[in-house]
Design goal:
five-stranded parallel beta sheet; Rossmann fold; alpha/beta
């Protein structure tokens, strides 16, 4: 069977109004934080061009603001400034160079914003404060509504001048239009409030204004929220009716879809691995049955087979694959050529895409060290002056990425791992319920190592004698980090309660039972994952943390809400602002540090998620023996997986 024969629906062309797409894979709109002073940058150009070169059927850019009152985050493209047009042309020319059409998404975020940057009142249909920004917006007057509609037309004209093939109106998860469409945020009593026809009036006016501006030669799409998942919010039935209203204008070429609200229910828009793929497909399915327009479905599509089935089952006509093409820009090309197994599958971990932008940094990827760096990456990989024999000690993410980068340059690479399996701490992290997809990081790296001819060895430690026997030109130490026993813990194995590390539980070294305190100083998945694992095994579990929130860093990866739901269901007790001060008289002594109030926990086990120390002895031994050596990952200093991958890429590419 030919590669296209494996995915006949996915790789069939389609007309979207005046635009023809070569396949049904859409690189849908998403924020990047690449803008500089409101203008598109070289980062945008290279980023979108890489996905076009990788075979995407259609690209839709991130949102472009249509009005000076809309500036909810710092690094936003201000489409209302004419200065954006030259940057637009650079983007569209680069994408068109690969035969891919590109649309611009334009938007006004309405009440889901802050006046921090504009120093102007936030505009919305009604004075309903958003739960995230907590700022009461100013209701638009009739004149201001007309001004916003004109803003959409102005930006559409800038996009037309910039060479875009069409416009997508963002009317979904963060949009003033969605604010008008929703009963939860539209309490107006004039012609723009009340029944759905009135609430959709501004959308119809925007569609007409934009179509008049761009003419029949460019495509026009509307992205609708199918279910806000909030009280009195948009339901799928209302979304279907809105789609009918839009289709009845005769001026729209396709419907895109979304789920949730970008503040109250953001965790459902950019779902983490705890939410199953295809979870939002009931929305495009319902809309597709109601309108005779192409419909785009979204919802954590990880591989081409999932996308093919969604189209084949009649759930949608095109499939939005965003994080999958961030992780692997060649997602579409690899699927089309039949090399599906080589696709670097997205982990849905949200650490460097969603999470990094939540910290006001530009978008990256935990497993693709080139994401966001395309504009600074060399066009071709320069071969080394001399091919070296490289020995990498350790097959965790840092060691494997070092091997990939070094072998990609042409070096002869051997990876020696102490254990019988690759993956390091990532392998342990992926062993807990609902975190298995994290293991795709290791699977992806191993597949790339095999493709490049990296030699992988297991079950033996690297020491100076081993290095002397192998005689490499350079050693790269990637030996990770070791658990640190807290100062207040008794010696291992002594007394009750027993104090162990999360890694002891995850690798099966210990099997706690009875009552357990999980002490968390890291604020991430280590403590919450092991707490769930033990609760599932029947333990009575309390998580104690010095932080203000248990698992506080889960907020930026959109895992916090689901963790709270699950922990409540499993009766896991969450205790914040508390430290452990001692293990004495067979009990855990704790203190609520804001008040100094002491307490006691009479438990059987204490499982610690605390800071680690670098396993750096091999590196120090090599330095002392004058061996040419580098080090990467946690053996430099313990960090998270993205840092290990970037370390490995940087060092491996520089050898």
């Amino acid at each position: 069977m030919s590669p296209v024969g494996r995915y006949p629906r996915l790789f069939s062309p389609m007309r979207i109004g005046p635009v023809t797409v070569r396949n049904r894979i859409v690189f849908s709109a998403h924020l990047t934080n690449y803008a500089d002073d409101g203008l598109p940058t070289d980062q945008h150009v290279a980023y979108y061009a890489a996905r076009a070169a990788g075979g995407a059927g259609l690209i839709v850019t991130e949102e472009h603001s249509v009005h000076p009152t809309d500036w909810p985050y710092e690094k936003m493209i201000h489409g209302f400034h004419p200065e954006v047009v030259p940057g637009y042309r650079l983007i569209t020319e680069a994408v068109h160079g690969h035969g891919t059409p590109i649309l611009a998404q334009i938007n006004h975020n309405g009440g889901q914003a802050s006046s921090m940057y504009t120093r102007l009142p936030v505009w919305a249909p009604s004075p309903v404060a958003d739960p995230l920004f907590r700022e009461v917006p100013k209701p638009l007057t009739m004149t201001e509504i007309a001004d916003v509609v004109a803003g959409y037309a102005l930006v559409a004209d800038h996009c037309r001048q910039g060479g875009f093939d069409g416009i997508e109106l963002q009317c979904s998860h963060s949009s003033i239009v969605r604010g008008f469409l929703s009963r939860a945020t539209n309490h107006r009593r004039d012609d723009y409030g009340g029944d759905l026809e009135n609430r959709a009036r501004i959308l119809v006016e925007i569609v007409a204004a934009v179509r008049e501006t761009i003419g029949p030669g460019l495509a026009l799409g509307v992205r609708l929220c199918g279910d806000e998942l909030i009280e009195d919010g948009i339901t799928v039935e209302e979304a279907v009716e809105t789609a009918r209203i839009v289709a009845a204008t005769g001026q729209v070429d396709y419907i895109n879809t979304s789920i949730g609200v970008a503040t109250a229910t953001l965790f459902m828009i950019e779902a983490s691995m705890h939410i199953p793929p295809g979870y939002a497909m009931f929305i495009p399915s319902a809309i597709r049955q109601a309108v005779d327009l192409p419909v785009v479905g979204v919802g954590r599509f990880k591989d081409p087979l999932q996308a093919e089935r969604a189209i084949d089952d009649g759930l949608c006509d095109l499939v939005g694959v965003v994080r999958g093409q961030i992780a692997d820009p060649d997602f579409a090309a690899k699927a089309r050529s039949g090399n599906t197994e080589e696709i670097r599958l997205c982990l849905s971990c949200n650490q460097e895409c969603v999470g990094r932008m939540g910290l006001n940094r530009w978008l990256g990827c935990i497993e693709n060290p080139h994401a966001g760096r395309e504009s600074t990456a060399p066009a071709t990989v320069e071969p080394p002056v001399r091919r070296k024999r490289v020995l990498v000690a350790g097959a965790g993410p840092a060691g494997l990425q070092t091997a990939i980068a070094a072998s990609g340059r042409g070096h002869n690479v051997v990876v020696q791992e102490l254990s019988d399996l690759a993956g390091g701490q990532i392998r342990l992290a992926a062993s807990v319920p609902n975190r298995a997809e994290l293991g795709d990081l290791v699977r992806n790296q191993l597949a790339e190592c095999r493709r490049l001819g990296v030699e992988l060895r297991f079950g033996k430690a690297v020491d100076l004698d081993y290095i002397a026997s192998e005689a490499p030109d350079v050693v790269v130490v990637a030996t990770g980090a070791n658990p640190v026993r807290p100062w207040w813990a008794p010696p291992p194995g002594e007394g009750r309660p027993r104090v162990v590390d999360v890694r002891d539980v995850l690798d099966g070294g210990v099997d706690p039972d009875g009552s357990v305190v999980v002490f968390d100083e890291l604020g991430f998945h280590q403590a919450t994952s092991v707490a769930e694992l033990l609760a599932d095994r029947g333990c009575s579990v309390e998580v104690i943390t010095p932080g203000m929130v248990v698992g506080q860093d889960l907020g930026v990866t959109l895992d916090q809400e689901q963790w709270l739901i699950r922990s409540t269901a499993k009766k896991i007790v969450l205790t914040t602002d508390t430290i452990v001060t001692a293990i004495a008289d067979g009990a855990v002594q704790v203190m609520h540090h804001p008040t100094g109030v002491a307490g006691v926990r009479d438990v059987d086990w204490v499982v610690c998620a605390v800071q680690q120390s670098p396993a750096e002895q091999l590196y120090l031994d090599c330095r002392a023996a004058a061996v040419a050596v580098e080090r990467v990952g946690d053996c430099v200093t313990p960090r998270r997986a993205h840092a290990a991958v970037i370390d490995g890429q940087r060092v491996g590419a520089a050898l």
